[in-house]
Design a protein that fits this description.
251 residues, mainly alpha, 2 domains, 11 helices, 0% strand, globular
């Protein structure tokens, strides 16, 4: 899941090696800084230590920082921009393009805590991976406490990615609820549905597709129990059939 860096650790002193590594990988370093800023702003939104009014501004800052990171990553993946349908189709295959769209969907909307978790956790995972590279460039045994925290985070990466996928899925009904409660726009559910189909078809991250399958298996197991009322069973089967028809075809 982490961004790949072509240049390895640079020789030098404890601090000099890290500085040389950062300077040799300027684009990756810029994304690292923007991800750390995203984590910082997201945390201050989830934990409004500076007040609720400031929390709303941190929500927007986190999404704007994530949009910047996604744009930089997309430029890294597709450096030669072309105003063509083929380039757009290729860009839509990239996860960074998905989360650029995601940030634009929610940046001007009513703050929703669910919507910030994917941004926070993806930024945390990617920032942790690059931080380990910086530490390796500094020294092979530098800051063992921080290394231990980063290792624990990496060990739980699969669970974190599944949690992100759950957020992506359940934000779809949340956008519909926001529309009827007057906190969302008419276009938001339709644009978010497009985002969700892109995540479902993602080549790099299959967790959204996997979670849909797992949720379907769990629901079918529960409604097939004799204790389940018939009308609930029919309602759930109709819902499963409807969602299955909406799912895009994956190559």
């Amino acid at each position: 899941m982490a961004d790949s860096t072509q240049n390895g650790p640079m020789p030098g002193g404890a601090g000099g090696g890290a500085v040389q590594f950062l300077m040799a990988n300027k684009l990756d370093t810029a994304m690292w800084i923007s991800r750390l800023f995203t984590v910082y702003c997201s945390a201050l939104f989830v934990l409004p230590l500076l007040g609720l009014h400031e929390a709303a501004s941190f929500y927007q800052r986190a999404l704007l920082a994530n949009a910047l990171t996604s744009a930089l990553r997309l430029h890294q993946r597709l450096p030669h921009f072309q105003l063509s349908r083929a380039f757009l189709a290729q860009a839509l295959l990239e996860d960074s393009c998905h989360y650029l769209l995601y940030s634009l969907i929610f940046v001007n909307s009513y703050p929703v805590t669910m919507s910030i978790f994917p941004v926070l956790l993806f930024s945390l995972l990617h920032a942790a991976t690059y931080t380990k590279k910086v530490l390796d460039a500094r020294s092979s045994n530098s800051l063992p406490f921080l290394r231990n925290l980063l290792e624990k985070l990496s060990a739980n990466q699969q669970n974190i990615l599944k949690f992100i996928a759950c957020n992506e899925i359940f934000l779809m009904p949340a956008t519909v609820f926001m529309l009827f409660s007057g906190q969302g726009s008419l276009l938001q559910p339709f644009i978010y549905y497009r985002f969700l189909t892109l995540r479902y078809s993602s080549r790099r991250n299959p967790y959204c597709r996997t979670l849909f399958t797992e949720l379907r298996i769990v629901v079918e197991h529960l409604i097939m129990k004799p204790s389940c009322p018939v009308f609930i069973r029919r309602l759930c089967l109709s819902g499963i059939s409807f969602i299955s028809r909406l799912a895009p075809t994956v190559a």
